[in-house]
């Protein structure tokens, strides 16, 4: 290799190493796509050092809960030598999970032959966690963390469909706390909110797995008892 080419490659490596985003390069000429280069941002993102990853396929970042459908998309892009962008749940060296936003690009030589794949990545955990939190609060009551009216209606519709399909019974229990307004009036809303939270926790342990307990509004709760053998089976839960 000529001096000018070595200098050009070293210049590129130096530039990649100063980037604030993670960069990893894999050898596309080998079936397992072993890594041949990572920059400092990759080490900071994953906790792995260069000597721990060179020669390995980047699947060591994956876990059992990594989206298999997304991995199929990735494999298809590799087979077709196409660029692909995705967000995967990966794991750092210390076992901590994070959301990894990735852009894979094939790199070709001057003859059009595929020689490398370059992955540019960044930690997207903050955005993913925020999206999950927003989705959670769109369907849950922020005070008690119970499903809200919208999720209750969705679960009820699902239970009705399953009951019809499997010829099972279901029941809906509506709970309204008597005398709750004087508690708020005399002790304040903070005390009343605490009462609602404690009540939610106590009700949760009384229902069966698969049932839905929801806060409808104020001091009103509802329980969907699904998959009952007979309508009278709801009596035991109600008595509890």
Structural notes for this entry:
The chain is an alpha+beta fold and 240 residues long. It is 42% helix and 26% strand. It has 9 helices and 8 strands. The chain has a 5-stranded antiparallel β-sheet with strand order 2-1-5-4-3, sandwiched between helices. A 3-stranded antiparallel β-sheet has the order 6-8-7, with helices on both faces. A hairpin with a 7-residue loop joins strand 1 and strand 2. Helix 7 (180-187) crosses helix 8 (189-204). The radius of gyration is 27 Å and the shape is elongated. The relative contact order is 0.10. Mean pLDDT is 86; it is low at 2-9.
Features:
240 residues; alpha+beta; 3-stranded antiparallel sheet; 8 strands; elongated
Helix content: 40-55%
Overall outline: elongated
Distance between the termini: 81 Å
Radius of gyration: 27 Å
Cross-sheet strand order for the largest sheet:
2-1-5-4-3
Question: What structural class results from the helix and strand content?
Answer: alpha+beta
């Amino acid at each position: 290799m000529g001096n000018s080419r070595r200098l050009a490659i070293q210049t590129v490596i130096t530039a990649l190493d100063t980037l604030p985003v993670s960069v990893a390069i894999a050898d596309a000429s080998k079936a397992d796509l072993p890594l041949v280069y990572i920059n400092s941002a990759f080490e900071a993102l994953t906790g792995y050092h260069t000597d721990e990853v060179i020669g390995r396929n980047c699947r060591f970042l994956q876990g059992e809960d990594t989206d298999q459908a997304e991995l199929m998309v990735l494999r298809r892009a590799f087979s077709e030598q196409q660029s692909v962008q995705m967000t995967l749940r990966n794991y750092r060296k210390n076992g901590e999970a994070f959301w990894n936003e990735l852009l894979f690009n094939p790199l070709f030589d001057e003859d059009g032959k595929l020689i490398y794949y370059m992955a540019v990545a960044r930690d997207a955990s903050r955005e993913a966690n925020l999206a999950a939190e927003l989705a959670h609060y769109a369907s849950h009551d922020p005070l008690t963390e119970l499903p809200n009216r919208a999720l209750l209606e969705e679960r009820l519709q699902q239970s009705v469909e399953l009951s019809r399909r499997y010829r099972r019974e279901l029941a809906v229990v509506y709970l309204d706390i008597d005398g709750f307004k004087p508690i708020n009036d005399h002790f304040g809303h903070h005390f009343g909110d605490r009462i609602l939270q404690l009540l939610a926790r106590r009700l949760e342990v009384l229902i069966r797995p698969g049932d839905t307990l929801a806060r409808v509004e104020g001091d009103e709760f509802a329980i969907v008892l699904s998959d009952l053998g007979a309508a009278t089976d709801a009596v035991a839960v109600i008595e509890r």
